[in-house]
Amino acid sequence: MSGADTPRLHVGCAMWSLKAWQGRFLPHPSTAEERLRAYAGWCNAVEGNTTFYATPARATVASWAQQTDPDFRFVVKLPKPITHERRLTDADTELRAFLDAIEPLGPRTHAVWLQLPGSFTPADVPVLAAFLRRLPGDHRYAVEVRHRAFFDDARSARLLEDLLAAADAEWVPFDTVAFFRTPPTSDAERDAWTKKPRMPHRSRALTDRPIIRYLGRDDTAATVEGWQPWVETVTGWLREGRSPTVFIHTPDNADAPELARRFHDEVRARVPDLRPLPEPAPTEPLTLF
């Protein structure tokens, strides 16, 4: 394959700005526009988690597009009123407002992400089916479920897989196995221990653009050890012609951009013709001495 047909690996983080990144991954001081632009020099994708809490202004989204190249990818989360409060019913007004707001991203919208609450059970799948049927066909969609029956009960898993595959929508796993393998050792890990869901490893792709969310530890060695199965899986997907997106999380996310690049490097060592990531701009002024 070549050109547009060449499989791509997008990697990124849960956000594009974090205080701990300033002066390291991001310039300091910097404006919001400078932070996104700098982040896009480290990673070529980002989770749009902020849209869960409020639909952004269209002008704000247009500024995101202006700060990123056309091959940068956003996975934007549907707002909480749609998925958690209205639970995918009677939310057409909110949905239209959201889709209109993200329109300026154009091809940068990798997928519209439906993160469903843990109370969304296999009995609710018909509601999801009806919602997916109403969605416009000019976006790709990805669904994250957290009720354990979807993972532990083969019939429930197959029910969801069949629905998503028919809609050309992806099932987004949030792999927290490595995180919960041993007790927490830092304040950030202890906080995440009480807030993050205990989700199993799931690695079956339904489309040509699978999306993975992986939670490691604050210890780099433990994070890298925990993602080794994903290196194998992603390598296999690329060889099959799929273009995966992998988001690397840690409890404090302090090293997340560097870790995302390391994951990309590990896969590229196995798939040498994989397109490299952009080169980060220096965060400090260049000097002659």
TrEMBL record:
SUPFAM superfamilies with a match to the protein in the record: TM1631-like
Superkingdom of origin organism: Bacteria
Gene3D superfamilies attached to this UniProt entry: Protein of unknown function UPF0759
InterPro entries documented for this protein: DUF72 (IPR002763), UPF0759_sf (IPR036520)
PANTHER family: UNCHARACTERIZED PROTEIN YECE, UPF0759 PROTEIN YECE
Protein name: DUF72 domain-containing protein
